[in-house]
Protein 1
Amino acid sequence: MPEGDTIFRTARSLGRALAGKPVTGFRSTYPRLTRFHDDTPLTGQLIERVESRGKWLLIHFSGGATLVTHMLMNGSWHIYRHGQPWQKPRFDMRIVLENADYIAVGFKVPVAEMHTAQSLARDRRIPGSTVDVLSSAFDVEEAEHRLVAHPGEETGDVLLHQDVLAGVGNVFKSEICFITGIHPFARVSALAPEQVKALVATARRLVGANVLEDSGNTIVTYGGRQRRTTNSSDPRQSLWVYGRYGEPCRRCGHPIDRRLQGPDARVTFWCAVCQPMPEQPR
Ligand SMILES: [Zn+2]
């Protein structure tokens, strides 16, 4: 599943290609979207901006509607020049948005809905911008409150709640716990206030660092031995613990642990020495 930083980069690219320009073409294989377009044509409207909220991508039209998409596991947006061959098969196309310069194609985008401002605000699945770690509207103190509101849950699992910290995915979860020295299976109730602060600050910093212009497509949280010229797609080259089961910890040499976590059984990596389990809940 793409993490928040991937969706952010997609939103930024789509925004550059589409924002401020009139839509010259719209197509979709989803009847609900084409029906909307029949009733309220998107062609002729401007795309005002493209925004990410956690793992959701929002395309705002000047007529007041917002096209909301979620990539789940396999969806993606591509941007092409007119006449340029597509990198994925036509039958994977779900949505096409065109302007005079570009064609944006949503391939295998499994969730796509048209919203009004009201329905968007009401929709509890789509995080508000103050919850998104990449948003300038992100509120640090509110985020700390949301985190400690889950005292009985494991820290690593709560980091994945998109209504607590939107944009943190499974790779970042393990990396944030390692960098803060917190055992991912420690209950939130066992965390000291400064640890809660460190989790939120680190989430914001790490996900933010991965949307810098030169950050490529690989999540990088560890830069120790990485050569800047190699853009390795091997996660073991760029991460502290994720994907490094049995390999020596980059800080202490102890072999990295791995276990499934939470109701969705997401894989979690940690170092038992650098991230000790708190002895008893505070
Ligand atoms: Zn270690």
Note: The CA atoms of residues 80 and 152 lie 48 Å apart.
Protein 2
Amino acid sequence: MLDVTPMHPLFVGEASGIDLTAPLADTDRDAIVRAMDAYGVLVFHDQFIDDAQQMAFAAAFGPLETSREADRPGHKMRLDVHMADVSNLGIDGKPLPPDHFRRMSGLANQLWHTDSSFKRIPATYSMLSARAVPDSGGETEFADCRAAYDALPEVMKARIAGFVAEHSIYTSRAALGFTDFTDAERAALPAVLHPLVKTHPGSGRTTLYIASHAGAIVGMPVAEARLLLADLMEHATQREFVYRHRWRAGDLVMWDNRATLHRGRSFDLDAVRDVRRTTVADSAQGAVPLAEAARSV
Ligand SMILES: [Fe+2]
């Protein structure tokens, strides 16, 4: 039976009582959903699962995302197409060379973001399993976007109500100087629109939906939009809203992308960090592609 112990004053629970290597009972699944609605992030320790078990666990919560690496011509993937390889390793199991596109996109994970906000169908849950971690660094930080929204001044809540932000993966990559993408890659992931303020469906609480992927707000000059987005990000990631997870091998951390932000922290990229993610697609809430929205104006 699921037992949850708070790990932070606002969110994040340590979950125990469920063996994630075994098929998930419906009652346990429902208990995890309720706990996720309350905590936003659950930390399971000592879950030495393999990829098949991780995919089966994730699939209990909805359709799995397919890795974007699969679209890269000529690229050989280390993991199944339903696993996001968040490691710094190549198919030979060794750390990637400095100029490898996966190493560069891994660096962009060190910017605050929510997974897949740049996709037409964004993500509900992500589950990250630590198979091997470096001795130091490589932590993941999470920020509580529901608490951050609650703490906004009323004048700011009134200002941003109804705002719609434009998200693109190429915005977060460009922030780090990575612009080396083909036209086909850019065409495959056009910018999408999301409300800046959303209601979290499980809890009914209001939340900020922001990410380093967001680079514009509909109807606002870009410079003003970027300053507002930067202000909101700075607000939401103040220390009081942040939990830092120091990984141990065997940890599986599950988070709700609709209620939290996260970022990886730096580590020695020549050390092995083998972390693998499964991601559940939010089949209930698709974003509006920018091009489609523009046509309807
Ligand atoms: Fe992420």
Note: Residues 89 and 95 are 4 Å apart (CA to CA).
